Amino acid sequence: MSLGLKIFHKTPYPAIDPKQPKLSQAGKTILVTGENGGIGFAIARNFIAAGARRVIIVGRGKEKVELAVSRLIAEGQAIESPTIVDRRICDTSDIDVTAGLWDRLEGEGIVVDVVVMNAASFGDAKSLLEAGRDRVWQSYITNVQSHLDFAERLYEQKGQVAIYIWTGVTPQIPSYGLTKNSGTALMQQIAKDVRPDELQIVSIHPGSVLSDTARAAGLDESSLSWDDENLAGQTVVSASTPEAEFLHGRFVLANWDIEEVMTDSFRVRLMNDPNFLKVGVDDLSESMTSLQV
């Protein structure tokens, strides 16, 4: 499938600068899952740069969450951002625990406007059958069920935007690609069922980022031509605005140029092809009313 796009970014560029008035997050509360440094941290950093009222970091590792929050507070103070940086310790794969998280937010009068689903289970570096159904299913719980849970809770409290982060297929860890594809399909289906003014949903591949997870897997600066983590962070901020409503239910790459994606020709293709930029099988249209066997 040819996209017809000519510009490919590796670093942030002016059109997605979060300090622009049109990308302002003033008055909004942003919840970001996944406490590790790298992509999630860069996303939070750029919502702070965009002047969000509150950024909530959610993760299960207390030390990692507290370290991330302390760094974000320092960065926010350095740019005189008004953002409140909040920490919440929560295992997003545990439905009972996440219920408590949302109940506490409600009790504190906190309404979430944007949820960034960045937490993920990478699974084992084994084939699906070698890993076994229990381990594979645990990845489904984290990478699919928890995202449905957060999307549902955001929708019920009239939140505005859900951003789903998908970092690509990892051949050595088949359960990751399988479950993240499933998570993407889930978000696409939810987007079909709700209007973007009810709940705007965009799935984003953040590019090749040397995150803590990548380092833990043995990669370093010389392994790849890495992308700047802030490219992903700023793309997510841009995708959370009403200006990106036309991407509702679609899958986009942070490396694409947002101004090129917003051209009339690209928008027309999105309007005319319901399967464009979606996970699925080429030449099988979801608009087909029947299948004859």
TrEMBL record:
Reading the lineage from the top rank, the first entry is Eukaryota
Which N-terminal residues, if any, form the signal peptide?
none
- What's in the keyword line of the UniProt record? Oxidoreductase
CDD domains listed in its UniProt record: SDR_c
Q: Which GO terms describe its molecular function?
A: oxidoreductase activity
Show the stretches that span the lipid bilayer: none
The UniProt entry's sequence similarity note says: Belongs to the short-chain dehydrogenases/reductases (SDR) family.
Name of the protein this chain belongs to? Uncharacterized protein
- Please name the source species: Trichoderma aggressivum f. europaeum
- Highest lineage ranks of the organism? Eukaryota, Fungi, Dikarya, Ascomycota, Pezizomycotina
